[in-house]
Amino acid sequence: MTRRTLLRAGALAGAGIVAAQWWSPQESAAASVAGAGSSAGTLDQVVFGDTASETAHALTAARSDIVAGQLGQPGRVLNPGATPEFWGGTTTFTLKVDPRTANYVSVKFWGGDCAPAIEQSWRLQVFVDGKVLGWLDQGPVDNIDLMGVAPRRPGGFYCHTLPLPLSATKGRTQLKFEIRAMGRIWAYGSTADKFFYPMTTPSRGVYRAYTHTAPYFQPGTGDDFGTPAAPATRPKTDAEQLALVTARVLKDQSQILYNRWAPTMDIYAFTSLAHGYYWPKSPAYRNPEALEKLCQVFDGTYLAWKDDATVMTSDQGWEGFGRIGAALCLTWDDLGICLDKDVTRGPASLLNLGFETGDGSTLDGWGPISWANFGTFARDTAVLRSGTASMRATSSGKNLIVGTLSKAVTGQGTFTFSVWVKTDGTKDVARAGVAFTDSDGATVTSPAMIFAKAGTTDWQHLTAAFTVPAGATQYTFRLGVLSGATAYFDDLEITAPDVAGTGVGRRTAYRDMLLASREHWRQHQRSYTNQAMYCSIGIYTCNRALAVLSPSDAWSETAAKSWIDQAVGLEPWAGSQDEAGRWAWPLGHDYYTVTPKGISRELGYVADYGETSGILVRMYEAVVQGAGGAPDARLKARMTMMAKARSWFRHPAVDSDGYKAVRIETQIGWRNEPYPGAIVYAQLLDHDSSPVSAAAVFADPDLVGCTQQMIEDGQLAPQLDTYLTTGLYTRIGLNAFLFVAEHLPAFQALPASAARLPAGSWDTPDFVFTDEVNACIAVKRGQEVLYSSLYYRARQGVNDMARVHLVSPNVERSATVRVTSEFAKNSDNAFTVQDWVTRDWGIADPDSNVDVPGGGLTPPGPALHQAFAGERSYLAPIPEDVTDPAQGATALGVEKVLVGKAPFYVLEYAGYIVAMNTSEKQTFTYQSTGSQRAVDLRTRKQTDLRRPVRVPPLTTLVLYDDSCRA
């Protein structure tokens, strides 16, 4: 029996036993089948929309229409119900299968189709003999289609391929298939109504379905997949877009300083304020009021935390009070007497009472009252009493009232104010007054506004004194004008009664917060790479702030930085500590959160969640910025290497408008990946990461060159659209601020670089990148790029399934395919695939209050069953000191680290032969009895495969045999 025949049959050859399946070696050897890497053509196919083909395959359909599709080819769409629900239209049909070996099903789609919005990211699921083929969300065998918001291959078709269960095809020559449409799945929904969303519009077109035995599907003669035209370069609009983003940032800075209520300001807004203090264009620049407001934010957080301890673990995320620590360190040298005050319950005064800041159309900190917004107001520099400006307010005929956009606190007692007013003297039209509220924001009856008197055109001094109404704790101030008149206001002064003090000094309060946060999170460290990074930043920045605020409570810098080093793989990941400071080592003493080649390590390769460059920038800036900060060449080199490692997982593509672009590889990713991936060059732009920050901070020529390539391709400006959105407003706002004020100027100051992405175009040199710890590859051969995760979504045991993605100017294929693994298998140490259909795993994460049962939430409608149920996955050997790969979780099906990755894999797909040794000590042998010679893609030399080839520990043999592709 040849290795290829073995692979195609899905056997598990190895150092131990052969996995018990329905076939025997004699049966497989007797089967007349093609090799795994070759193209054996199709066993059968149905052409949707073609009457003869549909009739021949007993096709039936419900909620479905035949459409005249692309390139003159017919197809079908599946429609939503009259009353939208999760499940949409369906079509059933029969296709032939091979009863003696492993089979695959592929479906053809038009690459130009995409969802108009993420809310319409419909999915298509295959059923076999009435059972779900794979899982609805993030399974190793997934949806036959998950439509994204961008096109995968405009101008051409592509195929997605899935394996069929061996038990379903054994002894069968024909199967009944169904393709069923469904609505959107939001992977983070905790209840069924938040997880399963109704389908409201038709699905994308479905053109053909095929069955075949070779993992790599080759269409037959006459099955046109199209030839996309070469894309043009997008015209550059960087300057225009940057002007809009800068305007947004300036507006944000004004609103944060003048409008936001300090006690409830979130972590992103106050971080923007802290950095704004050092940006010359910000109204917060070197403004003492900004520092006092920053402390008022910390005061409010402290009081909220004392009232509710979960503030530290919910509102602040995995960093705890780390953002407060970072802001304290950043501004430490300037905080001065602000820290010597007691904790306040809110701002004791309002800002911009002299109307000095604003521009011709706005006035910082002031805005119209919604029910009295009849007119205009602005800062006026021509008519004023003192300083540089006044406020001019003009009524359009009705009532115009302009009020402060923020509020201040007040105690009980006498409240006084005075303001200077100037009118044309004809009527009593200008007035001023106070609006009081209670601690819940409810209106409290307030004294009437007082009017300026008619009869003079000179400045009048309005004054008032009264007792604060019972129950009032906060106030805003209002100025108004009536009857089409214009009034000028200047030099407003307010004296409010003092508020009862807290009796807690700020230094003491901040020390208590930072210490509690550090102590909590060191005992609750995360294991996923990006989560561990966030947690480590928080632990480190809390300690850094303690080092300047309360040195006796601080660890040494070496001890604190160990958390950072672990998060980037410079030290083994030790997990959490107990109260006494003893490390847990839950995954042994040789587990790292980042692979030696710089890829973030979770259970396997992740795309978006693996794009940690933005977190690395934050981490490095936390180390070097502010009081006690200092450069760290070793840490910087490691982070630079990690940022650059992501460049292998980029490939040429087009944007939504058909222009040349580069996208991140997501098809082989494990966690909630969109298809296609986002446009990414050096760095992913997300909520916390800009497309230039890694190049700016690490100043590496390769990162700089990749970023310059993005600008050359005209792809900077479209990404900046994110900074103009209103979702996650302050979080996006902080990202936009750092981009405009810090990272873009630093990037622009760097010298040009000739470096470009390894696969940033089809004409770059060939390469082979392999990561044996994550068992993933990126290979460029000519104008073709192959990506693979060799143990795809193997969460509870070795599933012998790999994910592949092959892209070129003329071909796109994605697939889950069978691979061969080799290791000693113990029949008593295996996981049986459960009869679950939504997910093939469960989540037990008490630290995040996440408890998802095995299989996930139950989908709407009648009960469904799993086509793969009953198959067994043998657990891979793990180090002896890894005592609990489930990390405390005991529920059936929870994810387990390490048990799904075998020590040796062989993947054969589309002529590529990949033999990967993931072990640290064993040497394996690759023996091919199919191919006699193949090209070693690393050395570009012919390799004689008539004799065994040794594969040493942590190495990968990557070969190509063109005869297996034809």
Verbal overview:
There is one protein chain. With 966 residues, the protein is of the alpha+beta class. 22% of the residues lie in helices and 24% in strands. It contains 18 helices and 41 strands. Strands 13, 14, 15, 16, 17, 18, 19, 20, 21 and 22 form a 10-stranded antiparallel β-sheet that branches. A 9-stranded mixed β-sheet has the order 1-12-6-10-29-28-27-26-25. Strands 2, 5, 7, 8, 9 and 11 form a 6-stranded antiparallel β-sheet that branches. β32 and β33 form a beta hairpin. The longest helix is centred in the first third of the chain and has 22 residues. The relative contact order is 0.11.
Summarize the structure.
The protein has 18 helices and 41 strands.
> Main sheet?
10 strands, antiparallel
Helical residue percent band:
10-25%
Radius of gyration of CA atoms, rounded to a whole number: 32 Å
Q: How many helices in DSSP terms? A: 18
Which blocks of ≥5 consecutive residues have pLDDT under 50? 1-40
* Beta-strand segment tally: 41
Terminus-to-terminus distance = 22 Å
Helix/strand structural class:
alpha+beta
Strand content: 15-25%
The pLDDT mean sits at 93
Shape: globular
